[in-house]
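QUALITY CONTROL LOG
STEP: pairwise intake check
CHECKER ROLE: data steward
CRITERIA: each record must contain a sequence immediately followed by its structure tokens, with no blank fields

ENTRY 1 OF 2
RESULT FIELD BELOW
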Amino acid sequence: MANDLRTALGKEWLGSLDDPASPASIAAKLGHDLFVNKGLVPTAFEKIESILPTESLKLLFTIIGAVVGGIVGSWIALKLGLPTHGK
């Protein structure tokens, strides 16, 4: 098991960047370097894209709640015969 671990951690099995059929070369063509461990770093557009659905949904519910609240409040005011603005 120690030999297998050395092989996996040694990264020789990834191949070289010069060999077009090796995993390292294929990943490099897609913009990733398998020999550098930097983690996943989202782009600015990906950050905005991930925030947008949750914030836009909150905003939508806030707008719907305000409109429904205004309609219900106006309806109650009319039913109670409260004076309206400007009359």
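ENTRY 2 OF 2
RESULT FIELD BELOW
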Amino acid sequence: MSELNLTSTIPTNQSIDVPLLGLGVWKSRPKECYDAVKSALEFGYRHIDTAAIYGNEADVGRALKESGIKRSDIFLVTKLWNADQGYDEAQKAIDISLKKLGTDYVDMYLIHFPVSGKRNDSWRALEKIKGEGKARSIGVSNFMVPHLEELLKETDIIPAMNQVEYHPFLQDLELKEYCIKKGIVLEAYSPLAHGQKLEDERITNLAKKYHKSNAQILIRWSLQNGNVVIPKSKNPIRIKENADVFDFVLSPDDMKEIHSWNENFRTCWDPTTVD
């Protein structure tokens, strides 16, 4: 992990490589989202993560189109929302998302949440969507080990990726190890814990040691931990800063120290409560 850069990728079990660092656009309003994606692409990002429920797919699509960058050079992710889950509904939902994004395929299509009674039917739809070329790869988001175990009993196509909240204060080692065992890439959303732990003295001390920002320490930890990371920001300065994490390496001792910080601190929804 010491030779990483902004173009580094990780292979998946579906023969597609995912850029390790991407831009998340959750809670980015249309104009903010357009500007954020445009800035990220100018800084060298090639991985953009959106979702139907975010309401900004059209703005992501416009920024991609106006960037002048070849579509094949960008890794584009969107997600199937809860209200659209089910076999028939999911197939309609991807067409709506593709129209808004202004593209005929996404690089990764994820089930956004493990909705009880519908997630397996949704997965069957994603398999069809992948077969039709509307998604180059398919995966899940917010799936815990029991959800993955249930799914893998019903399919031969293992999710390429599982996007979950993951940061030093929320380290689900059982989930991490399960994903590694099954060849599922773990992608960390909210890698900065929504800023709620950003001023922790322990992070500040490491930031001073490495002459980096607190956010950069957390992002670098996730990257060295083998995760794909999608920090969210609407601020061009922060977007650029978040990508400036490839000129230093956290020492093994510091990585070990950060691994000890887990306190099961969850800032988003809790999928462990879903049957």
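INTAKE CHECK: passed for both entries
DESCRIPTIVE NOTE, ENTRY 2: Strands lie at 9-11, 17-19, 23-24, 47-49, 75-80, 108-111, 138-141, 161-165, 185-189, 228-229.
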